[in-house]
Queue: 2 jobs
Job 1
Amino acid sequence: MTSPLLEVRGLVKQFPVRKNLFGRATTFVSAVDGIDFDLFEGETLGVVGESGCGKSTTARLLMHLIEPTAGTIRFGGRTVGTAELPVKEFRRQVQMVFQDSYASLNPRLTVEESIAFGPTVHGVSQREANARALSLLERVGLDPRRFAGRFTHELSGGQRQRVNIARALALQPRILVLDEAVSALDKSVEAQVLNLLADLKEAFGLTYLFISHDLEVVRFMSTRVLVMYLGRVAELGPTEALYTGSRHPYTTALLGSLLSMDPDHRTAAPPITGDPPNPIDPPPGCRFHTRCAYAEGVCSARMPALLAGAADAAPHWVACHMHAPRSGHSKLKAGAAPETA
Amino acid sequence: MSTAAEPLPAAAILRSPGYWVTVGRRFRRDPVAVIAALVVLALILMAVFAPWLAPHDPLQGMTLRRLKPPGTEGFPLGTDELGRDMLSRLIFGARISLFMGIVPVFVALAVGAAIGIVSGYAGGWTNTILMRTMDVFFAFPSVLLAVALAGALGPGIFNGMLALILVFIPPIARVAESVTTGVRTRDFVEAARASGAGALLIIRKHVLGNVLGPIFVYAMSLIAVSMILASGLSFLGLGVKPPQPDWGLMLNTLRTAMYSQPLLCALPGVMIFITSISFNIMTDGLRSAMDIKA
């Protein structure tokens, strides 16, 4: 495979929970706790997981909206935030669409002003930025004549999200981070916006990081899927391979929660019970062992490494002792990955 | 990505009325507020054109005609304890009283809003240091602080004004800080940061427009307070010095005639009351006109 467009290595973000008398944090919550993944040019990487698993924190870390506690992000082989690639330069390449379409647009600016703001920051003249805003409005399916001079409260949710997409595209980025971008829309509008996103990806050669809790939508949109659990990567693989042959018990359980389209095949029992453990005090070893049906001694003793199978056509990574050779787990799967990955 | 849009004539774009146009339209629908605004306007015009409106010299007195009741021939509102025409003094008094009401608030608005917006947007240590400093001023009752400052600085219009400015900076800064903190965490500010804009540009383009309205409305509500405080300072002999006509000062000097000419004594107080209540009602109307729920 070609070299990745974006390489994320050992990314950690800890938020202070409790501070001592001198304002120094004594307790942390690790929203993102050491994740690694690559994003390849032209793909759509879906990110799924329960609420609170660190999906949005990952997005904000990628955007450099918050500083990582540890870890590096490399874009096109250059480390972000160093002299190789200053953050401002990087920001032109990666843009984000937020979940709340209303809060992410300035209520005092017209649609045209909102979209044209980004380019002017990067030295594009106001007139050219306005022209770009109008053509992008057209591109996202909003008639510039009717919408350019409007304020956000005059638009519907779907229209606002189209404006947000146009705003993100105004900087001509290569990567678009879509953080629950369609989750707040109703189903018919959601479908339209998803189709628009697919069209735009084709037209502008974009790469998407598609964050969602909606497994069906992720399956429809993504080329690969990353499953997160409590700030760590549980599984990462090609969409169909992951949906039809999930390796991590958590992924299996997550997919099992999908409602069947066939009324004769009802989901009988809830696949996982309880809530995720408190991330302030995460369980030792595998994060999932407290809720996993296959948990054994090794699961609470050692943290499983993220390994790809030896026989995979496209790498299909999983962090589970049942797939790690010589882990000592009694239900070790055949064809598991070599120890070094 | 192609940016070559077909040139769209600016006139072809349908433009929504701007925020302030909408606010103005909503304000005009509130009759009480409009009347209050007209009273404020009339008072300001009265202050500006005082020399043409006043029938007599406000400083020229005559002991022979002192303390005439309202309705006296030639002196429709009577004369004061030195025989000066009350009407002329009230008209000229509007100059200093309105000046003392408006100017300190606007100076404090500029300084307080800057402090509040910077500390609200920066957060962290900057916020702590700036806002705790404001809290120190806040700890004193405003009247006491104004009196103490004016007393320490010595009497005079300028010192009285300085005292009022210092009194009004902390509350304005506090309001500015809290509104800014609310705006800073909104996604559109995040999006502006994500586009690579610096703090100053974000404040100018995305924060100011969303916070100035509420801060301004709050400052407007302080004008009435400022006027009353200024009158109070003058009453205590810490603001305006005699013989200059000022409503607060007039209230003070006419106090001695309270039992012989009660109606006369009340006149400066009536002016203060009308002015401050008009400002308050106008501000209230403006506040509800600006409270646009999308």
Note: The CA atoms of residues 193 and 255 of chain B lie 61 Å apart.
Job 2
Amino acid sequence: MTQILIGPLAVAILSTVLAFLIAIIDKVLNNYGQMKISINGGKKVLEVKGGSPLLGTLAAEGIFVPSACGGRGSCGACKCKVTTDVGPHLPTELPYMSPAEIQKNIRLSCQIKVRKDLEIELPEEFFSVKKFQTKVASIKNLTYDIKEVLLSLQDGQTVEFEAGQYVQLVVPPYGEISESVQRAYSMSSRPLDKTHIELLIRLVPGGIATTWVHKFLKEGDRVEVVGPFGEFRIHDTPATMVCVAGGSGMAPFKSMLYHMYETDAFPEKEIWYFFGARTTKDMFYLDELAELAAKWPRFHFVPALSEPKPEENWKGDVGLITDVLDRYGQSSIDKSKGLEGYLCGSPGMINACINVMKKNGMTEDKIYFDKFA
Amino acid sequence: MINAPDVGLLSLFLASILTSNVLLANFLGTCSFISISKDFKSSMGLGIAVTMVIGICSAICWAVLYFIIKPLGIEYLSFIIFIIVIAAVVQMLEMIIDRFSPGLYLALGIFLPLITVNCAVLGVILFMQIRNYNFMQAVIFGFGSGAGWWLSIMLLASIRKKLDNNNAVPAGLKGTGITLITIGFMAMAFIGFSGMIAVQ
């Protein structure tokens, strides 16, 4: 009997001693003490505990650098400029860096550990980024694969954003997904409604976040979002806006259009909105936008189907959105005040539209876009 | 209490590097040998890491063997205990490398924790056990075998670097194919040393 007990007991004691040793070494080695992070030349100085990745350290201080993967080094979103020398770029950073970025000391903040006092540079907009606790107020099916998710902010929080910006949705572990991930979605709600965030989410087969939203998320669930982020916004010029979207690329334009209509912002701007879909099954907000166009003279709405079926009885424009855009660009759109392009959709659609826009007299620096990646 | 073999420390050290090289004479620890050797710098790092692990583990395992396992009569658990010790040492080494050389830490990637299951490490410790080495012999044999592993991977990395810059390799043999053939030649060369020095 004792013979049977002695063996496992010896193994257990030995393991305990070794585990204890590891814990002590960990404590000694990872004790970097207090570190200073100076942001944008000393505009903001943080006193933080060293040893952890920069991304998480900043998040603990309430500064949220955008990250789609949550710090695993697989999205390349959390770029920031580190002016202090923290050694050469790591193999995990290089795939996401262009030679120009390497030259400028751009680093992935999830891969850089705070091991000495750091000087970093971040866009000012990151300081207004917050984490919001929300509750799902409603989920509506817009098409067979796009849902409109309305989140209402909890605990008296309010969100300040510009139409066109996006938030990161925090997807908790679910089913076989064991790690929390973050994914970016444009807000389709109006900036004046500071207590709600609305997102349009299309089901991507195999997508972690979109599957969660479509198959698991229910009304009343609690959801965390981080934001707002993004440079996609209306530019204050008298130039005519030419907006092109497909699918859930509708989101930033819904926000922009209703915001402009309700506040009469940028009154000189004329707006053309081209929305492309394959069949009527993929079309949504048709009546709402047609109604908006009817009562708002400077807004022109052009929905187009690329593959309408005869039985659908489609009365609008037909053709690829790029062809429709080209047609209108050559005939209907008034170019006298100049043109600005606004694009939201898949990279393929955006690249094709940029070519058509350039052909119709727009310059590349006046074409703004929000690519789904 | 230990019936240690009559082998001089210097000859044991040379034997473990050359005549009974753990990789090329015993073919232990081949997985990381093949995959890491494509990069010269990582080979250097992993070679150092493996040498440290085998050396330190030999010393600790010798102590564990003669002060815990044998007195308690639990030889039947020695494999498990050795693996636990190896895992702990690798864990500690991992933290040390991460602290002092983050670049090497990332270059080694998954192969650093995988040293735990590198058969060369357990193999050397089991040789130490069955050959009844005394403490000094165990330590020398451990570090020597590690150095032998390190030498082999550096040799292979150098040869592969030459091969990569050479277009004479037939397309069908590029990569792992020519590497395996190269290892075969290297092993044959090392067999030429075998038996020159007795290790037990």
Note: The first helix of chain A runs from residue 2 to 29.
